[in-house]
Amino acid sequence: MANRSPEQDLIDGFISSLSRIEDADYRIQTLINSNCKAKKFADIEYVSHSGQRWAIEAKSNDSKDAHNSVHKIFGELLKETGRNEIQERSIGILIPLDAIAFYSRLFQAIDRDKFIRFGTLIPVKSVFAYGDAELKMMSWPELYDAFKAN
């Protein structure tokens, strides 16, 4: 398919994985959006089997401006806080599984306390990492701490 983006490929695999997960707080019941180009929705929006509405922004480091995707995560999360039409929802981010260390290392250039407070302010409920049919979930602080310098 022409003009496929790394984010859309990531989203498609993630959606497939979430459809099979056993945890009702995360398993998709009603998919609202799964298009990274949508203007009125987060990249992924759905209602889980437990009734929780999710808004998840996807970012990939699989591009020539990979380092800029780190900054874009903050902007996308801030944008979600401005959508007043939906009050009760959980906000998350989706990154490639093999990019956890990449994002963590670059986030560590930010003071840890400020990074954590940003995640609390939004609030970021979960960080999802997907790749090769494997799904990992972690907290915002766990993403920051994932990279260990040698």
From TrEMBL:
Domain of life: Bacteria
UniProt-recorded name of the protein: Restriction endonuclease
Organism: Photobacterium rosenbergii
Taxonomic lineage: Bacteria, Pseudomonadati, Pseudomonadota, Gammaproteobacteria, Vibrionales
